[in-house]
Amino acid sequence: MKEIAYILFSVMYFFGRIFPLRKDRYFCVMTHDASSDSSVGVVIKKLKETYKDPVFYYVRKSDKNKSALAKLIFVKSIEMARSQTILMDNEFLPLAYVKLRKNVRVVQLWHGTGTIKKFGHDINEGKMLRIVKKADSKITHLIVNSDYTKKLYARAFGVPYDKIYITGIPRTDVLFDDKIRKKDIDSFFDEYEDLKGRKLILYAPTFRDNEVKDPKIMLDIKEWTDNIDSDAILLLRLHPHVSKAFDDNMLMRYKGKVVNMSDHADVNTLMFVSSALITDYSSIIFEYILLDKPIYFYAYDRERFEKDSRGFYEDYESYVPGPVAYNTKELIEAVCGEDAYGEKRKQFKERSYKYTDGLSTDRLIDILR
Fold first, then answer.
1. Which of 258, 309, 310, 312 is nearest to 285 (CA)?
2. What pTM was computed for the model?
3. What is the pLDDT of residue 5?
């Protein structure tokens, strides 16, 4: 069914070529993050500030019902045919079936700032790999953060080096803006006055496919709250499927030591207000590393994840910029222990970022002029 839809999309795109290709029109694929804080969202804002009356067309993750599919085929295809620039934060598989017009720019602003896990061509197989390869062959600008990331993404997207641009990732620019950081922190504590002055620890684990049917959190919350510092508050940032398993009544038993922030609109704010991060294989570490605060890795299923899931590009324990724990007791010991990873965080940041000036979006706009 999807393949038929993609073929119909390509047919309508062909007919859409009767309209002139417009430099001021942008086709925006925001199927991972449709917010204004995403990389595509940040670029859109900058384009509006830079040019007079640019026109934007959108494809979002929410566009999944039958009417949205019909609109994708019969309307969005025509909109894309009129756009000289395509901005994406994810794969857009209809591209595999489309013969693009000359001078069209396909800009892949991948939603991950970096990656620990293998992805793209390194994990896809069979028919899906063939389709993804065709779609990725249309990329003209793959945007990355560093030479190290460039090597990984060249493999994951099958894109030659001359089409990979180290500008920095637009959505990280805000992390270098002290005024925005202070404003976000003040706004947060105005809303959550009871958390002010407490030691806030952000827990943001990777979503696992098996959690759709069996949502759970593998951290022993009772053991955590019984043994962690009395002033420490755990901020949960969970995938929506998992978050549903933790209602407010359930969390009340932990005496305010655990707060579910999964629905909070801005993860950047949660990073700003927290004093440390707990995660596992999530790309959030590539943003958090800029704040130079402790990161703890709770990798309770590392061996199974590496064997049965995506696997890693590097040896996990030697690569990550923080201590690795495999159960709640080890995690508590790490969090309560001395932070001895400052130098490793510095090295990790230097490998992951060529620029730390908050001007990534400006560099990208200059390339697209």
1. 312
2. 0.93
3. 92
